[in-house]
Specification:
By secondary structure, this protein is an alpha/beta fold. It has five helices and six strands. A six-stranded mixed β-sheet has the order 3-2-1-4-5-6, sandwiched between helices. Helix 1 runs parallel beside helix 5. The two termini are about 15 Å apart.
């Protein structure tokens, strides 16, 4: 199991939580970002060329069954649902088969509103509650993984 972070739009606090969790649980961590985002980490950072979906393509390429994905991208999440142990939105909720259709539909509606010149709800200032919710989700998955694999070598 590894934690794979979609690094382009990932808040720094989320990366810090992931790095601490990877250390605490002894799991791998990979951050994938394009050349426009400089990310420094003690863990592996994969830098890809600038491009609309270049980070997504790289994540799909390296993602293995059982990995955890950290992303805000519902399209990317939908591609990896069947392979992931968990997909966690940076705001602190799980993306899964129960909510992916609704999330994709809301993304589509917002995009249509913007294309017609309207305004959809844009990014808001990150709140401490989001960091706490994110950490709770990530640690829940990692604890379950450790319990499930306890005694296996």
């Amino acid at each position: 199991m590894r934690i794979i972070i979609d690094g382009d739009a990932c808040p720094q606090k989320v990366r810090e939580i992931c790095e601490k969790a990877a250390r605490d649980f002894g799991v791998g961590l990979i951050i994938v970002s394009d050349i426009d985002h400089y990310i420094e980490s003690d863990f592996e950072v994969i830098v890809v060329e600038q491009g609309r979906e270049s980070v997504d393509y790289k994540i799909v390429q390296i993602f293995k069954k059982g990995d955890i994905l950290i992303t805000q991208d519902y399209g990317l999440a939908s591609l990896l649902l069947d392979k992931a142990t968990a997909i966690i939105h940076t705001s602190g909720f799980f993306i899964n088969k129960n909510n992916i259709d609704t999330l994709l539909q809301s993304r589509y509606i917002s995009e249509r509103i913007r294309k017609q010149g309207g305004k959809s709800k844009g990014p808001t200032k990150r709140r401490k509650e989001q960091d706490e919710a994110f950490k709770k989700c990530l640690y829940k998955v990692l604890r379950e993984y450790v319990l499930k694999n306890k005694g296996r070598t």
